[in-house]
What does this fold into?
Amino acid sequence: MENSPQSNTNTLFNTDFCLHLTNLILENEASKGSNFVASPLSLHVMLSLITAGTKGQTLQQLLHFLGSTSINDLNLSSSKIINLASLAENLAGGPLLSFVNGAWIDRRLTEAEQVVEEVNLWVEVATKGLIKQLLPGRWLDRETVFALANALYFKGAWDFKFDPSMTEQTDFHLLNGQIVQVSFMSTQTHRRRLYRSFDGYKLVQIPYQSGQDARKFS
It folds into this structure.
């Protein structure tokens, strides 16, 4: 973990951790040539749970990777993140968000299929039916010591909708170098958008409608 992100106590969620983790995932997924979705927030919370049960050099490595100086610092950061993402009420006009976490440490893990059913039922109840199956069948086996589960559901409407009639067919460059024709959304609006170009990829920030929700998503 020599290239792990450094601690940044000025932000709630370590941006360096997100970028570092994203780069690792991109390197691993690039050869597959398929789309994927990753949640650094979910992985941060799961790794925080693992960190709480470690000690010695492993503890220090995990703290360094997560950008925290101590267990107390990590716990404080994680609790704020969970509270921010897990507000029980989805306010009118805002996005629909559900974020839940669970841990299973029990001798019953020897009954793997039963545990899978239990985890999936827990997720379905915790997300109010938004996520019905987190783990596929036979995901666990008798060698499993414990299970950590995280479910993140998000559904929102963009603050400014794209006009379907303005969709354009344009070249899209795949990670393997191949060029294909795909449908691109386009707009003539003069609204300012955050846009950055990096080596190998580009980012654009498009805000979601927030309604009465004080949180801002994009």
User: Anything to note?
Assistant: The two ends are 30 Å apart (CA to CA). Helices lie at 15-29, 40-51, 56-66, 71-85, 112-126. Residues 164-205 form one domain. The first helix runs from residue 15 to 29.
